[in-house]
Amino acid sequence: MNESTLFLITFIFYILAAFFYFSYFFSKRERLAKIGFGTALMGLILHTVALILRTVESGHAPFTNMYESLSFLAWSAILAYIIIEWRFRIRRAGPSFMLIVIALMALASSPLMPKEANPLVPALQSYWLWLHVSVTLLGEAFFAVAFVTSIMYLAADSREKKGKAKKSGISSEKVDSISYRCIAIGFPLFTLGGLVFGMIWAYYAWGRYWSWDPKEVWSLITWFVFALYLHTRIVMGWKGRRSAVVAILGFLAALFTYFGVNYLLAGLHSYA
Amino acid sequence: MKSLFKFFSSVKLAIVLLIIITCASILGTLIPQQRSTAEYAVRYGQLAGLFTRLQLTNLYHSWWFNGLLFLFALNIIICTLNRLSPKLKRAFQPKLRFEPKNIHSLKIKGKFMKNWNLARTKEELKKEFSARHYRLKEEDKENRSSLLARKKMLGTFGSDVVHLGLLIILAGGIISGLGGFRKDLTLFEGDSFPVPQADFQVRLDKFETEFYPDGNVRDWKSTLTVIENEKELFSKIVEVNHPLSYQGFVFYQNSYGWDWKNPSLEIWAKKSSNPSFLRKLQFKVGQRVNLEGENIQLIALHFLPDFVINDKNEITTRSNEPNNPAAFIEGWQGEQRIFSGWIFAKFPNFARIHSEKETDLTFELRDFKSSQFSVIQAAKDPGVNLIWVGCGFLMLGLALAFYWPTREIKVILEESQGKTEVTAAGIASKSRDTFQAEFETMMNSLRRSK
Question: What is the ipTM of this complex?
Fold first, then answer.
């Protein structure tokens, strides 16, 4: 079996997981959420095998073009979600989160993304490729979970404000604290992978650790937004709505760093 | 002075500065940086002058952006110091004389009676704490003891360590900016150059480009030899991602190119009337060669690596890469030019030869060689080590702040009539749920023990 078939099967598993999660969302039957979780986990395992196959086939890290990096981001997102759900029992986030994963997978499989594995250009031939990209994307995956839980918070909060009883048994307070937990995992990972490893690699490849390249600036901006989140929350005691808005902005900044910079701004990071 | 200190010690200022710096950084990615004046004029028209005056076109190196960073650094220093002294005091000289009312205000707490005297209760409690790696401080009065059990105190300093790391990184950046230099050196094989500000030389022995089977570049390799006092010290193959470091100088494979002024060409002459006729000619641009048996002299006047006819109908080269190599040749018979025109290496049938006299000769540009040069960047960056130290502190601080949660438990033991009343409360800055579970396990285990 080759990588592209496996990728397709993985995609089907994720769609099934989304289907189960949505059935759970509308029917409120816990069993369905459990099946959704199991399906997503199966998908993750298949996806892992697909990524390993890709690495073997291409002979380099599975994130050197947009197709590969989207696939890897989807993988990280599922991994992050499974860790968070297993740790904090937050099934309600399942449906919307699976939608993000499906969007990533769909983008990856779109005909606009060239799928063939190209040999590495000289600048990417470094083990820092593994460290820099994988750790950064994993951090961004946790920001994605925080994004979903923050939106859930805003929804739950407005429902509670209108005086409607909580049906689902998950309080807005808990969702708020889960957002924080996700950022507490994502922020150190993003700092390490995106900024620290990025600077080290830039020093070896380009001869300078910081060039104010648009991608560098946007990862710094992302970092600033999450620093803002942490300071307003821990020092100034922000919680709830305002915190959720900052977390959402942070994820949007991360998303722009990942996508927008490549397509809208020119710079040194022209590979992916 | 005092009010200035107060101004800089406010976290609100930090937040405002962070927002301003973020917005400025975004602006800098929307306006392309450090381009030519002409490009800005086309792009922004009348606004171009204003943008340049406000240094928006070189924003990250502008005085105002760096001024903001300076204010931010000052703010971080003062905020951190301001919060550090009470933290240090709490960590190293904690208050032990706490009252039951201090305890009641806390969230995680417990209270029970034990049928033991104070000494034994304290002993058992201390055992319980030690088993869970808490460090103890105590104060005794006649029939009352205060116990302070704490662990992972370093966690409280996580944010300070992060701030220290950031300041070191900023300092490294300043030193890099002021003390560093960076220079591109264009070298042909055999060239050596004295490194600026250093007492050694570097020589390029060999430069080669490796290709993948599909024709894409796999690697550029420059073999560099370091020469000090006319002695060859060592050689190293420098490639992208693998620079050469020596005495604080670093040499990077930065770029490459060809010197197209004087290439050697291989041109094949054929005759349409005679398929067995073939003459292989090798000569340099500008040289004349005789075409054997034909009484014709051939000369190549120009060579272009990437032939193109531009908008103004001029023949020129699009780039320095050999994408569409072409040579302009002329054929002479004595004093008379009999043909001239362009021939193309990639399009042998597309030759544009104008004959002034009948001839059935055809020419193909089969090969071209020019000396390739390597561009090596020589750099000295005295700030870079500070950057790595700063990054180390940054990550250490984040690890402490998020994953080394400080725990603190205050206990008051009060003895009356041979029994002891235990009042305890816990403080945790992070992961309160796990802490609460631990707290309750310890309390229950003491309450139940016999």
Answer: 0.92
Amino acid of residue B46:
Q
Rounded to the nearest angstrom, the gap between the alpha carbon of residue B151 and the centroid of all alpha carbons in its chain is 37
Q: What is the mean pLDDT of each run of 10 residues along chain B (450 residues)?
A: 81 92 93 86 86 89 93 93 89 80 81 85 88 89 86 92 96 90 87 84 90 84 91 92 91 86 86 84 86 84 88 84 88 86 86 78 86 88 94 96 91 86 86 86 84
Inter-chain residue contact A187 with B402, CB threshold 8 Å: yes
Dihedral in degrees, nearest 10, Cα atoms A107, A131, A220, B406: 120
Topology of the domain covering B97-152+405-448: TATA-Binding Protein (3.30.310)
Cβ neighbours of residue A171 closer than 8 Å, sequence gap 6 or more: A156
Backbone angles phi, psi at B146, to 5 degrees: -110, 140
Q: How far apart are the first and last CA of chain A?
A: 27
* Residue B107: how many other CB atoms lie within 10 Å: 10
How far apart CA B444 and CA B448 sit, in angstroms, is: 6
Please give the model's pTM, rounded to 2 decimal places: 0.86
Instruction: Pick the closest to residue B431 from A203, A178, A161, A83 (CA basis).
Output: A178
Q: Which of residues 391-420 of B touch A (CB under 8 A)?
A: 391, 394-395, 398-399, 402
Q: Would you list the domain boundaries of chain B?
A: 2-90, 97-152+405-448, 162-258+373-396, 264-370
- Supply B240's token pair: 């992208």
Residues on chain B touching A225 (C-beta within 8 angstroms): 22
